[in-house]
Amino acid sequence: MTNRSMNDYLSPAVRSIPPSAIRKFFDLVEGSKDVISLGVGEPDFVTPALVREECVRALERGRTTYTPNAGLPELREEIANYLYNQFQVKYEPANEVLVTVGGSEAIDLALRALVTEGDEILIPVPCYISYSPITSLGGGVPVEIETFAKDGFKLTAEGLKSKITPRSKVLVVCYPNNPTGGIMTYEDWLPIAKIVEEHDLIVISDEIYAELTYDNKHVSFASLPGMKDRTLLVSGFSKAFAMTGWRMGYVCGHPELIAAMTKIHQYTIMCAPILGQIAAIESLRNGLEEKDRMMESYNRRRRMIVQGLREIGLPCHEPNGAFYAFPSIAETGLSSEEFAHRLLAEAKVVTVPGSAFGLGGEGFIRCSYATSVIQLQEALTRMERFIRAIR
């Protein structure tokens, strides 16, 4: 045995990537009692009974086999019908839809299929934490585009143009946005689409929160004129359908891009689990009313937490999508990580430091309102006491 440490055997790309800032923070919660969590991006609803029951019946019938690599044909057809009916984007189930293990695998496949060493991947921030590390693992260069509360955390044409170079290849967007709750309207997207076409970019559009919009209907980037073939639409069942643990996602796009992603999927995953696919079919066929009921509950909680945060002295822009509020804590004089750590230690409320989500996140915290009204009310009471104590 050599004297080298095991770390020396690791890929330099892996060594250079820090652990998830969110997971690192949540490790501190282990063993804590009487803690209220506003940190987890997971519905507090269980998967609806009709979906669970259909899976029990399928299991009793012995449906425990592999499926086609791209997913059950009937699921791909249901996904295509759903996207057309809900968001007016038409995909061919046979060659433009790939079922994945959560939306996270779809993002990984998309970036691995597209990134060549040195390519620049444009990423509006604050954003979901995985985009930059996956880009780096593939040899790409993540380029952050800061968005601002004064703009509702929207991606602007000026912000996008300022970061484009001859090496720009892919734009990754996530609207409704995690962590800010920001959305993009049709009018917001039009100048972005023009720039995408002018600079010959491919867009990975993470639309996992598409159903969770409140004052405006979600606009899929792929629905804009000329953008369907340039867009890989990523989504799944975790958030709107309360199916996080089933790990069911999908990606839709040009047949050549989907074929390339399917090759990687074949060698790494084979196929998504069959029971998860059966659950997804049932959700799309018979679970839309349950989805809408959960959506109405999130909207009531959204209004409550935003008003509550503002009343206790934390300015908060209006989150029109997802299930997160992103209040500013800058006036407290604490960094977002200091604020979150002290809030946990002194008030036993879990939030996520905004700095975990990239450039522009500092000075904010993410508060998930995917928890009960009673818990939200108690969390706001504790936060108010904490803020009074530190001022």
Structural write-up:
The chain has 391 residues and is an alpha/beta fold. The strands form 3 sheets. A 7-stranded mixed beta sheet has the order 2-8-7-6-5-3-4, sandwiched between helices. A 3-stranded antiparallel beta sheet has the order 9-12-11, with helices on one face. Helix 3 packs across helix 10 and helix 4 runs parallel beside helix 10. The longest helix is centred in the last third of the chain and has 24 residues.
**Based on helices, strands and strand pairing, what is the structural class?**
alpha/beta
Helix percentage range: 40-55%
Order of helices and strands: HHEHHEHEHEHEHEEEHHHEHEEEH
Please describe the biggest sheet, giving its number of strands, its sense, and whether it closes into a barrel.
Answer: 7 strands, mixed
Strand content: 5-15%
Summarize the structure.
This protein is 41% helix and 13% strand.
Descriptive key words:
391 residues; alpha/beta; 3-stranded antiparallel β-sheet; 13 helices; 12 strands
